[in-house]
Amino acid sequence: MSTEQFNFAVLTISDRCSNGERQDESGPLVKKLVEQNLNGHCNFYEIVPDDREGIENDLKLLCDNVDCALVLTTGGTGLAPRDHTPEATMAIMEREIPGIAENIRHAGLKHTPLAILSRGVCGLRNQTIIINLSGSPKAVSEQLETLYPILPHAIESAAGRTKDCARD
User: Smallest Cα–Cα separation from 62: which of 22, 21, 9?
Assistant: First the structure.
């Protein structure tokens, strides 16, 4: 694990949370876990509705204008008609990182067969990594656990700061 601190953003995507019908538990949990386990500093957190164009605009803003190496979204990855997070992410990312999303779904199968229903994607825009996490706090915790070993290297690599990926 890296000891160098990095900035990250959390975007909770939920109609009910954004209009005050439900409290966001997943976004604050993402913030807490990444700060505790990866030495990240959350410099942006927002709750937004399940609106594809709005999500795209927020992701572009975060990747293009806010100093963050990582954007973690939570919510909007399921099969419901208003779940648009993966489509919004794919629309603005420049390169896909399919292995991260595959790993998240694969690890989730240890906990529930429903993990394969997540449509979350991962990719890069500029030097910012975007990862779609599920909306439930339990899933968020399990998904982040699978990412701890790889995120420091991924962030360094996306920023062009790695020298050699070969094992000793």
Answer: 9
